[in-house]
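Is this the right way to post structure tokens for a design question? Let me know if I should format differently. Anyway, here goes:
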């Protein structure tokens, strides 16, 4: 069944909210300084290369990503962490010390996700809508590992050692 729409409607549809399954393409750029052995990521693409504060030319790997997929998974991670915080707060005192440490790790994980989402937002002028609830990362070809015990998902794009394997 085909629907006939006029040009004005078509334009409006194009400009309105993203379709449920439209990816938004972007790049995550991993940077490695071979002198300092530091690894970090950025959303800023530079053609001419960049120099680290130590004066060494930085090795760069541009990883193509679907910004929406990365955002959706990061949002799920935040929900997992929030749920873990809520469950932990109800536990008995003998676990408090252990949980105190875990909570710090949890806070750090939460910060990582928020920072990542911030960078994703900087990659596109569009507002990032997460995929619908029933969207499945695996079925859509997104590679990721699930980190235990937290249960959060780290996509291939975020796995720095994939791009700069540690030399021993
Ligand atoms: Zn350096």
């Amino acid at each position: 069944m085909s629907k006939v729409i006029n040009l004005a409607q078509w334009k409006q549809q194009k400009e309105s909210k993203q379709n449920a399954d439209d990816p938004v393409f972007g790049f995550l750029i991993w940077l490695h300084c071979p002198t300092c052995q530091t690894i970090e990521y950025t959303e800023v693409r530079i053609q001419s290369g960049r120099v680290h504060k130590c004066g060494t030319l930085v090795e760069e790997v541009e990883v193509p990503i679907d910004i929406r997929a990365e955002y959706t998974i990061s949002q799920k991670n935040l929900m997992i962490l929030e749920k873990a915080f809520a469950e932990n707060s109800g536990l008995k005192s003998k676990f408090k010390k252990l949980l105190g440490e875990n909570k710090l790790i949890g806070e750090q994980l939460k910060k990582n996700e928020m920072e990542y989402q911030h960078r994703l937002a900087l990659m596109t002028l569009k507002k990032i809508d997460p995929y619908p609830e029933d969207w499945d990362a695996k079925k859509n070809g997104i590679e990721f590992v699930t980190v235990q015990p937290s249960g959060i998902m780290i996509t291939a794009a975020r796995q720095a050692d994939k791009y700069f394997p540690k030399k021993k």
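Format looks fine. Someone answered above. Worth noting: Confidence is low (pLDDT under 50) at residues 92-98. The first strand starts at residue 25 and ends at 33.
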